[in-house]
Amino acid sequence: MFQTVLPYILSGISVGGQYALIAIGYTMVYGILRLINFAHGDVFMVAGILMVYITASGVPLYISIPLVLVLTALIGFVIERVAYKPLREAPRMSIMISAIGVSYTLQNLVLYITGGLNQQYPTVPWISESVTIFGATTKVVTLVTPVLTLVLVVLLVTLINHTKVGMAMRAVSKDFETSQLMGIRINSVISATFVIGSFLAAVGSVLYFTNYTTVIQTSGAMPGLKAFVAAVFGGIGSIPGAVVGAFIIGICENIIKGLDIILIKAGISSSMLGLTTFSDAFTFALLIVILVVKPTGLFGEKTTDKV
Amino acid sequence: MNQKRKLTPGAIATAVIVIAIYAAVFISEQFLPPTSMLFTVLKKGATYALVAVSMNLLNGFTGLFSLGQAGFMLIGAYIYAVLTIPVSQRAAVYQYYDGGIIQFALPVIPAILLAGLLAALCALLIGLPVLRLKSDYLAIATLGFAEIMRSIFQWDKLGPITNGSNMLRLFPTFNDFNIKNANGEVVVYLSTLIPFLIAGVCIFIIVLLIRSTYGRAFIAIRDDEVAAEAMGINLAHHKRLAFCISSFFAGVGGAMLAMYMNSVQAKSFTSAMTYEILLIVVIGGIGSVTGSCISSFLFVACSEWWLRFLDQKQVIGSFEVPLLRNGFRLVVFSIIIMIVVLFFRKGIMGDKELWDLFNKKKKKEGAKG
Question: Model's pTM, two decimal places?
Answer without folding.
Answer: 0.89
